[in-house]
Design a protein that fits this description.
Order of helices and strands: HHHEEHHEEHHEHEEH
Radius of gyration: 32 Å
Distance between the termini: 114 Å
Number of strands: 7
């Protein structure tokens, strides 16, 4: 009598390949959903269908969290746009150069949480020195020496603000700023520089986005030049 050959046992790869090729297998055999067991992280066994529900719940929660984050980002962008619009309107409507600087500082504090704003203009354009927050950027002055590299490259710099720089720029500050952004005003025409500073050491970071800073610098430069020639 011929020996009956037993069918070869299927390995995991073959079972996996078969199930992938038959995605409706469990639909055709629903009784398996209650008999297949998966080990739960707590150690207890759960049915396949319970595990599927758990996975779907986790996926749903991740999608919900992602949607919440997107909505928060959209609200933040809307607030920023509103604040930039207010800044532009304030600078445009300012009757004098002094009023424009005061408006800049107020908008920075109230809308953007930035404690200090410093504007330096090259001496060929700025003759007066009696406007709080507006300074002549003399080539041989102390500020020019401390920011020599920036004035050479005219690239935006963000990060910690040293105590020496903070005391020089903001001697009247009740609490010295800890971080700052240094931005050129009219890089090609070399109008000067804008420095925004915060008491928060994390407010300005080297790798942060530069779009807001560039937009602010453009608005400030336009307002300053318009008031200088008016």
């Amino acid at each position: 009598m011929a020996e009956v050959k037993q069918p070869a046992a299927l390995d995991d790869e073959q079972v996996l390949a078969y199930l992938k090729a038959q995605p409706d297998f469990l639909t055709r055999h629903p009784e398996l959903l209650e008999t297949l067991q998966l080990q739960h992280t707590s150690g207890s066994a759960v049915s396949l269908i319970e595990r599927q529900v758990e996975v779907l719940r986790g996926r749903s929660q991740r999608l919900e969290d992602r949607l919440t984050q997107l909505l928060e980002n959209a609200r933040d962008n809307e607030r920023r746009a509103t604040h930039v619009h207010r800044l532009a309107r304030t600078l445009i409507r300012a009757p004098t150069l002094a009023a424009a600087i005061v408006g800049l500082q107020q908008c920075m504090r109230e809308d953007f949480g930035i404690d200090e704003a410093w504007v330096g203009v090259v001496p060929g354009l700025l003759k007066r020195s009696d406007i709080e927050g507006l300074h002549r950027l003399d080539a041989e002055g102390a500020v020019a020496r401390l920011f020599e590299n920036f004035l050479r490259t005219k690239l935006i710099e963000c990060g910690p603000l040293s105590e020496v720089r903070a005391r020089l720029l903001f001697p009247k500050a009740a609490e010295l700023p800890q971080s700052a952004a240094v931005v050129p005003l009219e890089r090609d025409k070399n109008l000067g520089m804008l420095i925004l500073a915060s008491r928060d050491p994390q407010r300005f970071q080297p790798r942060q986005g530069k779009l807001f800073l560039e937009m602010t610098a453009e608005l400030v430069a336009a307002a300053v030049r318009a008031k200088l020639v008016s």
